[in-house]
Amino acid sequence: MLTLALFIGKSIIFGLRLLGRNGSALPGLVVEKLYPSILRKTIGTLPYGVMVVTGTNGKTTTTKTISDLLTAHGLRVLTNKTGSNFVRGIISTVASKAHLSGELRYDIAVLEQDEAHAVHLVRHVTPRGVVALNVMRDQMDRFGEIDATARLIGKVVDTATDWVVLNANDHRIARLADSAQADNAVWFGHSKELLPKFLSDDQHHHLDNLTFYEARKPDVLLSEVNDGEITIVNSGGTHKINVQLDGTHNAINAAAAMAALHATLPNAPMARTLEALSSIEPAFGRGERIRLRNGALLRLQLVKNPSGFTHSLRLLEGQEYQAIGIAINDADADGRDVSWLWDVDFTPVGSSDSPVLCGGVRAGDMAVRLKYDQVKADVVEDKLPKFLRDITGHTRDDQDQVIIFTTYTAMLQIRETLKKQGHHVPKVGL
Questions:
Q1: Which residues pair with 50 in a beta bridge?
Q2: How far is residue 366's CA from residue 371's CA, in Å, rounded to a whole number?
Q3: How far apart are CA 335 and CA 141, in angstroms?
Q4: Cβ neighbours of residue 387 closer than 8 Å, sequence gap 6 or more
């Protein structure tokens, strides 16, 4: 029955690709119905087992960084590159990569899972390790209040058999160590000096009275973040690393990834790790740079909650953009409630002389929000194809760059529209 299920799954994937679609859910749905124990029989048997990466912010980039680091150290890594973090998406990935016998020629599976779906995944397959990044207020119409999200992550952490990676600066994550069953806990975090750059949801409205929290001394410490360079401190010393993953959000993701590498391969040579880390490029839609037909660059930066948007806006500090776009949708995958936009400080947008364009279903709401921070929206266009023509129209040649801060479904639509408009958009498959 396993062979039949995989054959049908592969056939569906092939058919969807002929239609120009990725098909990250439908194949998994069918395969799961035909063979419910598919994950236990496949990724559950890998030599290094399964690693689950969960939390509110940074899952996709951290998963990619961990995967690239492990690959650099010689492991064959199976991962969900598209960020499809439903169980069905994972099963689709397995179906596309497995031999019809069920054999997977990989050493480890590194899987991104959102806070709710991770609970379902660990019912199918027990992870050897879990990376718990953070708990932020996000999609509250779906997850409920923030402590409920922490409890979901806690259920996943409790299933890890060998190790967990925990954020020493997030008190909701840190206290999950009390119930963790794994033998080993590896901690990552940032220095006290970086506190103003890494505010929790509890601190956004108390900037005059910030308190530094550190549950444990981190095994991997992010001590400095400069333009294109981060400083990491671990048992091997202090390391300054030039990185392509710019931004404070990606700096802490790199620290988490190094902690996960240490948990998986404690004796991994540091020189190879640092070399690999310096060459890792952004995951799709997470700082991804898309080359336009005229040679200019368009940068896509996913945003979905106040903390993540605040981090992302710091990208305006080190680079001049010919135009700044903000594309906000309110589909289920984005979160129907966009009131979180009122907890973001948009003054960095106004500090730039670049024209500002608002797009997406909630373009008008975004323009109103900007007005309250004394920022004028030069264009308000809810139709994304027109919005994209407007923003790319500000570019002339390969010396120009534009940036779009975008919610998830708008990001997918933007990539697809840019492709149809003839721009070079990298493919992302299962």
A1: 109
A2: 9
A3: 7
A4: 325, 327, 357, 358, 359, 360, 363, 379, 381
